[in-house]
Amino acid sequence: MKVWRGDANGGEFVEFRVPSDPGMVVLDVVHRIQAMHAPDLAVRWNCKAGKCGSCSAEINGHPKLMCMTRMNEFAEGAEITVSPVKTFPVIKDLVTDVSFNYEKAKTIPPFKPKPKEADGTRRMYQEDVDRVQEFHKCIECFLCQDVCHVIRDHDENKASFSGPRFFVRLAALEMHPLDTNDRLDLIRAKQGLGFCNITKCCTEVCPEDIHITDNAIIPLKERVVSAHYDPIAWALRRVRGKRDQFAPPEAEPPSA
Amino acid sequence: MSTIAAGVRHRPQERKDLWWLEPTVIVVVLGTFVLYSMYAGLANANYFFEPYLSPLYSPCLTANCVHPTLPLIGSYWNLSPAILIVAFPLAFRVTCYYYRRSYYRAFFWSPPALLIFLWWDVILAFNFGGRFGIGLGTVLMLANVILLSGYSASCHSLRYLVGGYLDSFHGKSLRYRLWSWANWLNARHARWAWASLIVVGLTDLYIRLLSMGVLSDPRWVPGT
Lengths: 256, 224
Description:
heterodimer, A: Fumarate Reductase Iron-sulfur Protein, Chain B, domain 2, B: 224 residues, two-stranded antiparallel ribbon, two-stranded antiparallel sheet, 9 helices, 7 strands, 8% strand
C-alpha cells in the first residue's frame, strides 16, 4: 500500500508492505502501518463504522471512507494508494484542514420555527418528515465537498461557493414545513448554487446514499428560478398579490 | 519501504479503474446522434413513407412538406422543415438536468408540446389507406413516443411543478400523489433520456431507409 506522507510544504507516496487479514478494511491496514512501520503517520478516525465521517481519504483516487472500504475489493497483491482529500489543505499525511466547512456552516441562517399551535404543540406530518429525513443522514464526511470540481479545481471559488454538503443542509431547512426563514436569496447570491452544473459527482461518492443532486440541489435551483427568474411565476405572484413573498431571512449570521 | 515523489495538490494519476469509459461512450453516442440528426434534419428528403412521418420532422409546419401536419409556413420556405422545429427539442435536451451531467462530464431532443404532434403521428401510423393496421414502423413510432413521454414525465422541473415547490404536503393529497409518482419516474430519468434519444434516431433512420427503398416495412393490415 502506498500512503501519501507530507505536509503543507509537499510530500510523497511512501510504499509499505504489511500482512492483511480476512475482513480488514483500508483503515485497519493504515493502523497496522502505524503499528509496524510509521508510528508518526497522521490519520483522523473515530467510529470505524461509517457514521462519524472522520476517515475520508482518496483510495486509488476515489473519495471514500477508509473504514468502509474492504481490502477484499482489491485483487491480491494489487497496488493501493491512499492519499488525503485533495480539496482541503494538508496538515500532515492523511489529515487535512476542513475548517472551510465549519466557516460555511456559520453562514446558514438557523431553523426558525412557526409559533406553536393553540394546544401548545407543533405538528409535522409523516409525508413531510419523509422528504427531509434523507438530508439528515449526512455524516459530514465532506467527500462531496472533496469531489466537487467547483472547489476541487478552483480554490478561488471557495469564497463564493458553499458546496454540496451545505446545499443538503439548506434543502433540509428550506423544505422544512415548520421553518419560517427564507434563505432563497442568500442561496442564490452568497451560497453560490448557480456554480453547480449538475455533474452528480457528489451523489456518487456519498457514503449515506443521499441523492444530493436530484433531491437537494435541483429542487433548490427550481425554487431560486421560481423566485428570481421565471416570468410566469413572477406574473402569478403579481396576480395573487404575493409581491413580497421572498423577504430576506431574519437572524442571518453576520458572516453570511 | 520505497518512496515516489509527488506534490500536495498535483499528485500523479491515482485512478486504476476504467474511469475514461463512461465519458467515451457518452461522447460516441451523443456525438453520433448529433451528427446523424444534423444530416437527417438538413437532408430535406426521405422523411416520410406512407403512413410514417420521421419524428425529426414532426410537426411538419411548411406547405412544401411531403406530409404537412400544420402548414403554417407558406410555399416560400424551401429549406428543410426540420429547421423550424429543431430548436424546441434541442433546448429541452440541452437544459435537461440529466444531459447537463452527461455533456459537462463528457463534452444533446423533445419538449412536451411536441409530444402531442408525435402522438398524433402515431395514430396516423395505424392508418394504412383507410384500413387499420400495424407495421414495424408503427411499433417503432409508438415506442418512440412512449419513451419521449416517459423522458418528459420524469423531468426534474415537472416534479417541482406538480408538488416539489411545497414545504408541506398535508391536506394536498393530489399534489402529494403526483409528486410521489414523479419522484418514482425521476429516479429513472437517465434511462428514459438515453432510450428516447437512441429510439428517436432509429425511428428516423428506419423511415429514411424505407423511403429510400433500402428496406421494406413488414405490416399486418387485416382484410388485405
